[in-house]
Amino acid sequence: MRASTLNNYRERTAWLRKVKAGETRVDHKNYKYVASIKEFCKMKGDSFAIIAYNSLKSAASHGEVGDDRNDICWQEFKLLFSQVKDVVDISIVSVAPVLPNAHVLAELALLDAHICSMAYIELLCFLSSLAGTITTNPNLAADRVRIQLEISKAKFKSVISHASNYDGAKPCLTLIKK
User: Fold this and answer.
1) Per-residue b/e over 78-114, b at no fewer than 16 CB within 10 Å?
2) Which residues of 133-149 are buried (b: 16+ CB within 10 A; e: fewer)?
3) DSSP the chain
4) Which of 65, 127, 167, 172 is the most interior residue, by most CB within 10 Å?
5) Origin, by domain of life (predicted)?
6) What does the pLDDT look like over 104-152, one tens digit per residue?
7) Is there a contact between 93 and 40 (Cβ–Cβ < 8 Å)?
8) CB 59 within 8 A of CB 22
9) What are the tens digits of pLDDT across the range 8-36?
10) What is the pTM of this model?
């Protein structure tokens, strides 16, 4: 057994103990590594590197003092990991979502209302001017309507649907267990 593998096991165990005791928090980018021990092996910490699952298991079976303790340390490691996983799951659920500032939301609502009123007035003026040309040249009126619709779609795209501001990324959905 290489000393670096044993050291990696010891450092991971120490890190898990710190998380369990509340001395260290699992930040958002490392939540995925607490899903399973195999995922945890892929995590690189300040004091430990990525390690193969079988290497970690082998190091654990050698125990803290280097003797073969018949998987007792591995069972203890798995128990410690499951306790940390429970602590992290509780901390994820208890974190309150960040809500947008009410003042900012009010300003955005006023801006949207202003843009909507501009669109209404612009289309009302267009329809008023169009009313006189429908009887004289119906084909020209239809072309003007199509052009005006395209202009309005381009100008007021953000009002038509906020989905156009959507970046296309799939939402990150997580299952919350109680």
Assistant:
1) eebbeebbebbeeeeeeeeeeeeeeeeeeeeeeeeee
2) eeeeeeeebeebeeebe
3) --HHHHHHHHHHHHHHHHHHHTSS---GGGGGGGS-HHHHHT---SS-----HHHHHHHHHTTTTS---TTHHHHHHHHHHHHHHHHHHHHHHHSPPPPPPHHHHHHHHHHHHHHHHHHHHHHHHHHHHHHTTTTT-HHHHHHHHHHHHHHHHHHTHHHH-GGGG---PPP---PPP-
4) 127
5) Bacteria
6) 888 888 888 888 888 889 888 888 888 877 777 778 888 888 888 888 8
7) no
8) no
9) 999 999 999 998 988 888 887 888 888 88
10) 0.49
Amino acid at 124: L
Distance CA 52, CA 58 (A): 10
Residue type, 31: Y
